[in-house]
Amino acid sequence: MNHLPLLASTLFYFLSCCSAVVSFRSGEFRAGRFNVITIALGVIAQSCFLIQQGKIDQACPIRTLPEIIIFLSWAIGVFYLVIGTTYRISLMGTFTAPLILGLQSMALLLPAEKITSMMPMNPWIEAHAAVSLVAFGAFGLGSISGIMFLFQERQLKSQHPDPIFHHLPPIRILEEATIRLLWMGLILLTVSFAAGWIGSRSISGTKFGVSLLLWGAYSLILILNQKNRLSGHRFAFFAIFIFFCALMILPLIRYLSDLAVR
Description:
Blueprint: H1 3-26, H2 33-57, H3 65-86, H4 92-109, H5 123-157, H6 171-199, H7 205-226, H8 232-261
Helix pairs in contact: 1-2, 1-4, 2-3, 3-4, 3-5, 5-6, 5-8, 6-7, 7-8
């Protein structure tokens, strides 16, 4: 594994986090071009790593747990660059960079894995795995948007809001961004299921059950929200809760994937 692009991207995300800390301590929240530029450079460096690793693996670079985590953090960064600029939520980078930095640091600290199975790769199965991770990138940024929603909601109820209150986007924009990100993630996850089915590869029943449970959880909160049976506060909370539950069971899904190919 070539660590140079990863170290470079980690440095860019670290600089973005430092900028956020300085802003919080000074009370001047002017997150804008610097956050966007540093995260964009981080995504570019991650892209270089993924391209190089893909050539080495001769497959989509998601064959080990560190590669999966890096791919996931890359997807979150890409969605931020698209959504953050579309909705003019540049301050979202202040909340996104620490998550990506944490994920990538974890990937760098994990012991290197040896790929023991070199079975021929089915392009549909590769698409299934890659699109699933891109979907979780959307879910990840949706959780960040949910955190911002809860923070802004708390500021609105406070009689003495913090200085950051005046720089956060309207709560309606945050709710809309969270809903759209979760719908995007759900659609992509559905597409990944279809690709896996077309690939006709037997997978662990437990792995499929876990993935289906996550799909059902996101579907449920989106449907309840659409029918106005879930408040914005609870919707944001569940968007955060489900994603971090998914992060915790990611090693389990990886382990079950290994069992499926043995």
